[in-house]
Design brief:
Residues 5-145 form the Phosphotyrosine protein phosphatase I domain. Keywords: Arsenical resistance. It comes from Maridesulfovibrio salexigens (strain ATCC 14822 / DSM 2638 / NCIMB 8403 / VKM B-1763). There is one protein chain. The chain has helices at 17-29, 47-55, 84-88, 107-116, 121-139; strands at 5-11, 33-39, 78-81, 98-101. It is built from five helices and four strands. The longest helix is centred in the last third of the chain and has 19 residues, at 121-139. It starts with a strand and ends in a 9-residue tail after the last helix. Helix 1 links the parallel strand 1 and strand 2. The protein has a domain at 5-104: Response regulator (Rossmann fold, 3-Layer(aba) Sandwich), CATH 3.40.50. By secondary structure, it is an alpha/beta fold. The model has no long low-confidence stretch (mean pLDDT 91).
């Protein structure tokens, strides 16, 4: 069997989207991918992301918000930026890592907008569920969709 791909999901704060992507990749593709996630900043793990992933049978409660600099010693093959800010400010990766952008909506921002309109907690969680499911569908295509 060929070597696993070292794949990094990069987001701004490594609190939600990149954490969900890492969780899905570990859950669905651990035979092909060594999954990591990090942020260009660290914002802590979002409890709503943990909750909706647990609903889908994926435990990310032990994850921590990781700064990209903490992974500098890992030879990353592919970096997937999952938000526009991370894509626009993606740091240089030595060794020729391929960088691919696959943007997803920001669940905390969506939930905040729902709350400001008077939406329920359940409606706010639905924004996390929507993105969780979109990320799952993307991860199911890996790694074939990213390698040359």
């Amino acid at each position: 069997m060929k070597n696993k791909i070292n794949l990094l999901f990069l987001c701004t704060g490594n609190s939600c989207r990149s954490q969900m992507a890492e969780g899905w990749a570990r859950h669905l593709k651990s035979d092909q991918i060594n999954a990591y996630s990090a942020g260009i900043e660290t914002h802590g793990l979002n409890p709503s992301a943990v909750k909706v992933m647990a609903e889908a049978g994926v435990d990310i409660s032990g994850h921590k918000s990781t700064h990209i600099d903490e992974l500098r010693d890992i030879p990353i093959d592919i970096v997937v930026t999952v938000c526009n800010h991370a894509h626009e400010t993606c740091p240089y990766f030595p060794g020729g890592s391929k960088v691919v952008h696959v943007g997803f909506d920001d669940p905390p921002k969506m939930a905040k907008e729902i709350a400001e309109r008077g939406g329920s907690n359940e409606e706010q969680l639905d924004s996390f569920r929507k993105v969780r499911d979109e990320i799952r569908r993307f991860v199911e295509t890996l790694p074939e969709g990213l390698v040359d």
